[in-house]
Design goal:
The complex is a heterodimer. Chain A is an all-alpha fold. Chain A has ten helices and no strands. Chain A has one domain: MetI-like (MetI-like fold), CATH 1.10.3720.10. Chain B is of the alpha/beta class. Chain B contains ten helices and ten strands. In chain B, a hairpin with a 2-residue loop joins strand 4 and strand 5. The longest helix of chain B has 14 residues. Chain B is globular and about 55 Å long. Classes of the chains: A mainly alpha, B alpha/beta. At the A-B interface, helix 6 and helix 7 of A face helix 2 and helix 6 of B. The complex binds adenosine-5'-diphosphate (ADP) and magnesium ion. Magnesium ion binds next to helix 1 of chain B.
């Protein structure tokens, strides 16, 4: 705390130090290096914390874990719920985001597209509690009928087995709320990359006699594909980890294949709902579930990276 | 002369970007099977004008034209004319080579063929690829790597690939906007040779900054000029290339082709 300037006294021949050793450059280089290290340290710290605190749950007598059949029996329904909700969100949000982004970048008149861009960005700024409230108060009652219909007509598909939830607070509803929440991020990224498609290539397509849609298919979509995938992965990351909205909307319960009845839960929601009253081994169990979520998100990101770098020779980058 | 004549007849054409008039009052006739060169100082509207000949001009927001462009007597700007159809008849090669980076060489050549819901058999498409690439003097250089990305070729090869892509759809007319200005001298000569070949089957219009190129490749030359910044470009004169370069009727043309300005 009391470092005095005498500690960093400049050597007498400072004036003759070569230009490459300027103090400003050196300090900046150290500062950036420090920031880079800090991130790694924090990440390693989080991983170490999760691992250490999970160990008791992973090594405990299966009978002592909630459910009485060990950690994996406890956690896999949560993993299923997490993945299912995120998948529903992606299936709904990706085509919508693609359409909105294309409309903004290539179809709407400039004024309208700017306004739409703002609205989409605003959607991203809404806190998830608000989405949760909207999900319970408005969405759930309004989609109840649709889930009922699915249960009545497609009930033979395991995903839609009845009885449909009377409140509408099902995994499907939670997935829809998540879809709305990840829509802005996917749209914003897709719009950015679509707008960056070189005019050169778009003109090449048009000059061959492509219609606007054909031009988009030939140039804009292939060019934007890696960006779009990153956007989808960011959205997926958010959907996997989203806690508040799911915890509020979903009427949680045990595992069921059906997406239209109450039941299931996600890792994040389970942690948020149970952690405040947990103690001892239960706390370790929840942290271990957190570790699983961490690993899933990491795996998703790495898979995304692989997809993006594949076929790089054919990308727009060269 | 090609089997069916396709004469271009431009009448009193004005071209605008929003409220800015970029080209004023151009009238000209482009004979079928000829090579026509557009020359003139930068900014005089050569690119703007050539792009009106296949309605690429209207891709720019706010851009519009007044006047007539007739292809075999039919107005390209008629109310019921689809610009997409116009562009299939009148192909275009741009200043910077622009093969589609996400496509292989083969798919680049076939890009135009596969448009508008067309389907073709593999054998047929193989034939089109070979014919078009031969037509663009590129076949021997790429025949062993048709499935590699087109962006891996040299600049000159990329430009010839773009020409192959343009002729694959068998247009009547080929427009080229400074097709060699991004290329080295050897590649430039290769393109010039190619133009002399293509002329047997297509009507060609080429914008060039290079006087020697204009005199080497073209039958007719049109000189455009501009009186000052903010003023619209105009067609000063158009005549047989030999006449423009030896004995033009307008002093400004003589000054320009002899390098005294511009
Ligand atoms: N997309 C555009 N929007 C507005 N003005 C343009 C555009 N393209 C060209 N212009 C203007 O039109 C005039 C003619 O340009 P251009 O046709 O590119 O000339 P050239 O090809 O002969 O060099 C110039 O004044 C230029 O600034
Ligand atoms: Mg130009």
């Amino acid at each position: 705390m009391t470092i005095t300037t005498t500690d960093v006294q400049t050597p007498p021949n400072a004036s003759s130090t070569p230009a490459k050793n300027r103090a400003g450059d050196r300090n900046f280089s150290w500062a950036t290096r420090g920031a880079g290290m800090l991130i790694l340290v924090v990440l390693a710290g989080v991983a170490a914390f999760l691992l250490l605190e999970s160990l008791p749950a992973l090594s405990a007598d299966p009978a002592d874990i909630e459910g009485g059949e060990g950690f994996f029996a406890y956690v896999w329904p949560l993993v299923f719920g997490t993945l299912a909700a995120a998948l529903i969100a992606l299936i709904v949000a990706t085509p919508l985001a693609l359409g909105i982004a294309l409309f903004i970048s290539h179809y709407a008149p400039r004024r309208l597209s700017q306004g739409l861009g703002y609205v989409v960005d605003l959607l991203a700024a809404i806190p998830s509690v608000v989405y949760g409230l909207w999900g319970i108060q408005w969405l759930a009652p309004n989609v109840r009928g649709a889930w009922q219909w699915l249960a009545d007509h497609l009930g033979f598909v395991p995903l839609f087995t009845g009885p449909a939830s009377a409140t509408g607070r099902t995994l499907m509803t939670a997935g829809l709320v998540l879809a709305v929440m990840i829509l802005p991020i996917i749209t914003a990224i897709a719009r950015e990359v679509f707008l960056q498609t070189p005019a050169l290539h778009q003109e090449a397509a048009l000059a061959l006699g492509a219609t606007r849609w054909e031009m988009i298919r030939m140039t804009v979509l292939p060019f934007g594909r890696p960006g779009l995938i990153s956007g989808v992965m960011l959205g997926l990351g958010r959907a996997l980890g989203e806690t508040m909205a799911v915890a509020m909307v979903l009427s949680t319960g045990g595992f069921t294949w059906s997406m239209v009845t109450s039941g299931n839960s996600t890792i994040a929601a389970e942690i948020a709902l149970d952690f405040p009253e947990s103690a001892g081994l239960k706390t370790n169990t929840l942290i271990a579930a957190g570790l699983v979520l961490f690993v899933i998100t990491l795996a998703v990101n790495m898979a995304a990276r692989r997809v993006v770098t594949r076929r790089q020779a054919f990308s727009g980058a060269n | 002369m090609p089997a069916h004549a396709n004469r271009i007849d431009v009448g009193d054409l004005n071209v605008y970007y929003g409220s800015f008039k970029a080209v004023e009052d151009v009238s000209m006739v482009i004979e079928p099977g000829s090579v026509t060169a557009f020359i003139g100082p930068s900014g005089c509207g050569k690119s703007t004008f050539i792009r009106t000949l296949n309605r690429m001009h209207e891709v720019v927001p706010g851009a519009r034209v007044e006047g007539k462009v007739l292809l075999d007597g039919e107005d390209l700007y008629g109310a019921d004319v689809d610009p997409v159809v116009v562009r299939r008849q009148i192909g275009m090669v741009f200043q910077r080579p622009n093969p589609f980076p996400t496509m292989s060489i083969r798919d680049n050549v076939l890009a135009g063929i596969k448009l508008n819901g067309a389907r073709i058999r593999r054998s047929e498409s193989d034939e089109i690829v070979e014919q078009s690439l031969r037509g663009a003097n590129l076949w021997t250089e790429v025949k062993d790597r048709l499935d590699k990305p087109g962006s891996g070729l040299s600049g000159g090869q990329q430009q010839r690939l773009c020409i192959a892509r343009a002729i694959a759809v068998q247009p009547d007319v080929l427009l080229m906007d400074e097709p060699c200005s991004a290329l080295d001298p050897i590649s430039t000569l290769a393109i010039e040779d190619l133009i002399s070949e293509l002329k047997k089957n297509y009507t060609i219009v080429i914008v060039t900054h290079n006087m020697q190129q204009a005199s080497r490749v073209s039958d007719r030359t049109a000189f455009f000029n501009i009186e000052g910044t903010g003023k619209p470009g105009r067609l000063v004169e158009m005549d047989d290339t030999a006449k423009i370069f030896t004995n033009p009727s307008v002093q400004a043309t003589e000054d320009y082709v002899s390098g005294r300005f511009g």
